Amino acid sequence: MRFTSEQRLDGGVLEREFTLGEIPGILWTPESASAAAPVPLILLGHPPLGLRKMYPRLAGRARRAAADGLAAATIELPGSGDRPRWAAAEQARADLRRAMEAGKPVGDEIIDALILPLVEKSVPEWQAALNALLLLPEIGGPVGYSGGVISIGIRLAVVEPRIVAAGFFAGSLVPRAMVEEARRITIPLHVLLQWDDEGNDRQAALDLFDAFGTKEKTLHANMGGHTGVPQFAGEDAAGFFARHLR
User: Fold this and answer.
1) In terms of residue numbers, what domain contains 169?
2) Dihedral, CA atoms, 142, 147, 151, 157, nearest 10 degrees?
3) C-beta separation of 178 from 120 below 8 A
4) Alpha helix stretches (DSSP H) within 72-224
């Protein structure tokens, strides 16, 4: 891990950009973080739209985590942002757009081609980033995962024992194989669902929630579309992580 820039945000939050090999990322730490008082960490998941586009939302979530004494970090997903183009992923996204624009059902073949390779490529990168982040003296764990792509979060929750709690943004483009993996999750979950999400099959999201194997899972459903998440929903999610990571 090599830090490439840093700046202080409101409230004394330290924001540092880094690279891990070819992978860009960002780490936010609260002013209280030090080698003498290391803090827990939240990995911030996001859709494959690029860190530059997602930065305002990610920074907002990181500031909220810092207010609770938690560090937050994220990395660029394969084929996104300034990373090399990924032809197979671009083809899968194009197939998805065509199906949705034509009003056709999105079949398992398209979903698998879009999501499964992304999970296989990105989860080891998240784990490599976690390895590097936990070597920093001001980061001490435990670790949570927050956000999407929900299939990436599912895989991390199953294979990564250092993650002790996860908050997911509900989505319906979940391969059947990932639904089966969801049954193996045992850590506490907090799932946010927008009831009228125009890009989400509500019933599929509810079925996935039902499949999660953990005994401690909470579904927060709010009226409104994809971008209409109420502020109090974010506060509830922050409280979930403060409860499990502090």
Assistant:
1) 2-245
2) 10
3) no
4) 87-101, 108-133, 150-159, 176-182, 202-211
- Number of domains the chain is built from: 1
Tokens 């084929």, residue? 79
pLDDT tens-digit series, residues 28-78: 999 999 999 999 999 999 999 999 999 999 999 999 999 999 999 999 999
For residue range 70-98, list pLDDT tens digits in order: 999 999 999 999 899 989 989 988 998 89
CATH number at residue 211: 3.40.50.1820
Helix and strand numbers (H, E) in the chain are 7, 9
**What does the alpha-carbon distance between residue 88 and residue 114 come to, in Å, rounded to a whole number?**
8
Helix (H, G, I), strand (E, B) or coil at 230: coil
Strand 163-169 and strand 71-75: the pairing is unpaired
Q: 140 vs 124, 128, 133, 199, CA distance in Å?
A: 20, 16, 9, 37
Per the CB < 8 A criterion, the answer to whether 1 and 19 are in contact is yes
